[in-house]
Design goal:
It is globular and about 60 Å long. Strand 9 and strand 10 form a beta hairpin. Strands 3-4-8-6-7 form a five-stranded mixed sheet. A two-stranded antiparallel sheet has the order 1-2. It folds into four domains: 65 residues, no CATH class; 145 residues, H-NOX domain (Alpha-Beta Complex), CATH 3.90.1520; 44 residues; 74 residues, Arc Repressor Mutant, subunit A. It starts with 5 loop residues before the first strand and ends with a strand. The chain has 15 helices and eleven strands. By secondary structure, the chain is of the alpha+beta class.
């Protein structure tokens, strides 16, 4: 029985490759884990999340490099993500590749998932944490989001001028790197970039290879017992930049299922349309309040509230603050995404 939060063994091999550049051996890194470099070569092997996190913490300690996650992210390429990277690299555009990542991220891990939010000019690739990453949270966030950006640039041959938003505090080791704009204590973890990048063609597009990659991902999901995750897809469809929030019926239509089926699938994933809507409104509110010149009345209307009073009541429920109080001191309430997280360290 595979542990619910696990990683492909190949992910540990990537950490071995990285620490060797800091003159740390595989045996040093894996000491106490019960693993050896040899038994990590099985393409079907998976490693429990708790062990992977301890290995990552050990990598940071042994190398003496606090920014080990940035190094990992900057060295990423598509094949580091196994079957999913294989399929995404062969997709026709970045949009198609991101859709595959959203749909099949459980092949890599269920410890986080992705959503795509798009407006006329900007696109947001949002990373939702599903577990408690503990002391290596910064490593996971930097390595994953920077890795996604590096892969995107490599596959399109274009430089991504992007903003990296993280929910964590500034870790204090950024001065040695030129990563573009990085903002801390943000409402969500995300890459914010020009929406035109979504439709850039991929250099390695191959329909047959992409289909084969998708088949491999489907097979892996079946092995892991992971069904199609409707919550993430429904959440990604909630916001329409021109019309506001979509209704339950509109989302069901976009997903090609009945409203009854959608409700049932969301319930099976321990959520509902109302809960997803509340979470999305909260995220949007925190983001919009970061624009000081935007009046509260406009924010309330944009979020679908009939008046400011209704918006203020909802915001106080989310953060125990009024929107005005939040604007005066946003650092007190810029926390990570809500929702149940599993503790991988227990």
């Amino acid at each position: 029985m595979t542990e619910p939060c696990s990683f492909p063994a190949a992910q540990v091999l990537r950490w071995i490759e990285l620490v060797r550049r800091f003159h740390v051996s595989a045996s040093e890194l894996l000491a106490g884990s019960g693993l050896s470099e040899g038994n990590l070569s099985d393409p079907h092997a998976r490693v429990p999340g708790s062990i992977v996190l301890s290995i990552i913490e050990r990598a940071r300690s042994l190398t003496g490099e606090p920014a080990i996650g940035i190094h990992r992210g900057l060295q990423a390429h598509a094949l580091h993500f196994g079957r999913l990277g294989f399929a995404a690299a062969a997709a026709p555009t970045m949009r198609a590749a991101i859709e595959l990542v959203i749909h099949y991220s459980a092949v890599v891990t269920t410890s986080f998932s992705f959503r795509l939010r798009e407006s006329r000019r900007k696109a947001e690739l949002i990373l939702d944490e599903r577990v408690d990453f503990g002391s290596v949270r910064d490593v996971i966030l930097f390595s994953t989001l920077l890795g996604m950006r590096q892969v995107g640039q490599a596959m399109t041959g274009a430089n991504w001028s992007s903003t990296l938003d993280l929910v964590i505090d500034d870790p204090g080791y950024m001065a040695a790197f030129e990563l573009g704009e990085v903002r801390f204590r943000q409402p969500v973890n995300r890459l914010l970039f020009d929406a035109s990048r979504l439709d850039l063609p991929h250099n390695l597009h191959d329909p047959a290879v992409m289909r084969l990659g998708i088949e491999l991902c489907e097979k892996e999901l079946g092995t892991l017992g992971q069904g199609e995750r409707f919550a993430g897809r429904a959440r990604g469809l909630l916001w329409d930049s021109t019309r506001g929030f979509r209704s339950l019926e509109q989302i069901a239509e976009a997903l090609h299922v009945s409203t009854r089926t959608l409700k049932r699938r969301l319930a099976a994933e321990d959520t509902s349309y109302r809960q997803l809507l509340d979470e999305e409104r909260r995220e949007q509110a925190l983001s919009l309040l970061g624009t000081p010149q935007l009046p509260l009345s406009q924010i309330a209307a944009k979020l679908g509230y009939a008046n400011i009073a209704n918006f203020e009541r909802a915001f106080r429920r989310w953060t125990s603050q009024t929107p005005t109080e939040y604007r005066r001191d946003p650092s007190r309430s810029t926390t990570g995404p809500r929702g149940r997280k599993l503790d991988l360290h227990r």
